[in-house]
Write a structure and sequence with these properties.
single chain; 661 residues; alpha+beta; Rossmann fold; eight-stranded mixed beta sheet; four-stranded antiparallel beta sheet; 11 helices; 34% strand; globular
């Protein structure tokens, strides 16, 4: 059963925007432009409320709803470009919200370190910590909140204490030493309880709320993991990346706090999850997938005790430390009930009786169910995108092959319904590029392109995340080289396998994907029929002098280690290779983009025009790294579909199929 009241309060209470316009005959673009009803939803520990984040045009709000009757009892709508990025039930009554800024829909959220508390019983909220906290004024000595330039992030909701949580505190300085404060979620009062032995540290606590691990890295980006015992006396170095040549991170503790769980990188292949006994230094491997890294930890309902992990490979799958445990049996019963869908318990009541279950697939953006673990019954709560019919969406198929140098590569092919053999194809490399990966889940862009009649190829080229340290490291300084070869090899593989018409292939991407699209057109002029780049980077030396990455010491180190010496990057910059591009190009960018400044696109367009290459462009001075505004998004995708249709013969937005070129 679909609960229409949930969608109704989103529009009524949060004023998310106008109702989408009806599309004309042809491809219904609006269904792909509409924002999800929710991003995430969590059940309160006492079971009386839900909290949910709601995407709006240029911000993300949060609302609290009473389970009985579905009434909105509290809401928080941040300023423009601000987002309720993370949220946690800190008690039965209060939700702690972590804010982030995004200057563009594709921008990586940058946490501001502000924590906002919202009460379910009163509906009121207040900022507890962050750079926008204001004093109570000079006329009073009662100043419970510290007014200081810091960022704070939740470590432990401390269910054993009704009013307090543990937060990591980051001073506003480059690569700071961090600390841990106990934060009163009602008054905002803070008290320091631990300090880090390493810069930029995150922390992990045990079930009793004691800080036991610190993990961080300095300007050199060399990771270190420290441990201390329950007494809190001194820090012990557990792992130094400079010595071990791997990164180790702490995940949590067993229920009694005696055993720690670590995620450990390997010299080759994916990461492992190991148990570590601090008393004896004994380690044991608990989980290691043959292909992919752990993506998310699985916890025992009602606790913070890790019991397994979710892996995103050919298809999502769960694995447990003890496959005979009650936790494993619960998941297996849910997976049987939702056959063909991925399953993840996202939250639960404190007693573990009621759990909130998310399901999804390559054809389904996601559904949420409330499952009673005693009665063994599930009730549908809401769908992320209720207007999407999964049965009418394109099938997403995993694939694997070997690159020219023998490296095993994986990806996903979205197949247009009723396409027959050898349809036109769009190669769509992901952004990032390092550590980012395509996981085969629902992708609105890929489904839109499939609806237009194209097969869509998404490759996890070397440098992508999810396949272990060596796989990611293999992409270092390989912009325009081995990473590009992987995309070329994947395109040729798809053609050879009969998945695409060799004469009708275009390459399109955003951010790094836009770079790869232009490089693909430059390096392989006979392979692609056209190329499109959205908020891309095309002048690699400029990345060392402009944009947001190079502003910190660790960011400069990252660029040198992963992108390369600026003196050697001109030769793999598409802006300098325009004369090699022989196919039509479409470019789009925003004037407020700090990740890929608009100068990249303007220089690329000018170089193409000088070389006599047919080029179309679309600029919005007020947009950032990806377009927010609905009319701008509508025009962008209408132009993109028209551009692809002119070169490949697919559908246009709100119109009939274009004639085959």
């Amino acid at each position: 059963m679909r609960h229409s009241k949930w969608a109704a309060w989103v529009v009524m209470v949060l004023l998310c925007g106008p109702v989408a316009q009806a599309a004309a005959a042809g491809l219904d673009l609006e269904q792909y432009l509409k924002r999800d009803t929710f991003n995430d939803i969590k059940l309160s520990p006492g079971g009386q409320y839900y909290a949910a984040t709601v995407p709006m045009e240029d911000r993300t709000a949060l609302a609290i709803l009473a389970r009985e009757g579905g009434k909105v009892v509290g809401s928080f709508v941040p300023p423009k470009n601000n987002h309720a990025s993370t949220f946690y039930w800190a008690s039965d009554d209060r939700v702690l919200i972590g804010l982030a800024e995004k200057f563009g829909s594709l921008d990586k959220p940058q946490p501001t370190g502000e924590l906002y508390a919202l009460s379910a019983s009163s509906g009121r909220g207040e900022l507890l910590v962050g750079y926008r906290v204001e004093s109570n004024g000079p006329g009073t000595r009662i100043q419970p909140k510290k007014v200081e330039a810091v960022a704070a992030f939740l470590i432990d909701s401390m269910p054993q204490e009704e009013r307090n949580v543990l937060v990591s505190v980051w001073p506003f300085s480059s690569d700071p030493f961090t600390r841990v404060d106990r934060l009163d979620i009602t008054s905002g009062r803070r008290q320091t309880v631990a300090r880090s032995p390493v810069r930029n540290a995150g922390f992990v606590s045990d079930p009793a709320g004691r800080i036991r691990f610190a993990h961080g890295a300095g300007v050199d980006n060399v990771n270190k993991l420290y441990y201390r015992d329950a007494s809190g006396e001194g820090w012990k170095l557990v792992n130094d990346e400079a010595v071990s040549k791997r990164i180790e991170t702490a995940l949590g503790f067993s229920e009694d706090g005696s055993i720690a769980y670590l995620q450990v990188q390997q010299n080759d292949g994916p990461d492992t999850i190991v148990s570590w006994d601090p008393a004896t230094d004994a380690r044991a491997t608990l989980l290691r997938d043959p292909l992919v890294d752990p993506d998310q930890l699985l916890y025992r309902p009602g606790t913070r005790v890790p019991v397994g992990a979710l892996y995103l490979g050919e298809k999502p799958r769960t694995r447990f430390f003890d496959e005979a445990s009650a936790d494993a049996r619960l998941y297996r019963s849910l997976e049987a009930a939702f056959a063909g869908e991925a399953v993840l318990i996202t939250s639960s009541t404190r007693d573990g009786r009621q759990v909130l279950v998310q399901t999804w697939s390559g054809r389904n953006p996601g559904d949420f169910y409330v499952f009673d673990t005693v009665a063994k019954s599930a009730d549908h709560l809401i769908s992320r995108s209720s207007w999407i019919d999964p049965q009418r969406r394109a099938v997403v198929q995993p694939f694997a092959f070997k690159a020219r140098d023998g490296m095993a590569l994986n990806g996903y092919l979205t197949v247009p319904p009723g396409a027959g053999t050898r349809p036109p194809m769009v190669v769509m490399p992901h952004g990032g590029p390092f550590g980012v990966f395509d996981d085969g889940s629902y992708n609105a862009e890929a489904q839109m392109l499939a609806d237009a009649g194209y097969a869509v190829l998404q490759l996890n080229f070397r440098g992508s995340g999810n396949f272990g340290r060596a796989y990611r490291s293999a992409g270092a300084k390989q912009w325009g080289a081995a990473m590009q070869d992987d995309l070329t090899d994947a395109t040729r593989w798809a053609i050879a396998q009969g998945h695409a018409d060799a004469s009708k292939v275009c390459i399109y991407g955003a951010s790094y994907g836009a770079y790869a699209a232009m490089m693909g057109a430059a390096r392989e002029p006979g392979l692609y029929r056209c190329a499109a780049g959205y908020v891309g980077v095309y002048d690699l030396p400029m990345m060392h002098t402009t944009g947001d990455i190079q502003r910190s010491g660790s960011g400069s180190t990252y660029l040198k280690e992963w992108l390369g010496d600026p003196k050697q990057l001109a030769e793999v910059s598409p802006v300098n290779l325009a004369e090699r591009i022989k196919v039509p190009v479409f470019l789009a960018a925003g004037g407020e983009d700090e990740r890929a400044p608009i100068q990249h696109t303007r220089r690329m367009e000018a170089a193409l025009q000088k070389a006599g290459v047919p080029v179309e462009s679309l600029y919005y001075p007020t947009e950032g790294h990806g377009f927010y505004t609905d009319p701008h998004r509508r025009e962008y995708y209408t132009r993109l579909l028209a551009f692809l249709a002119a070169n490949l013969g697919g559908k246009t937005a709100g119109g009939a199929a274009a004639a085959s070129p």
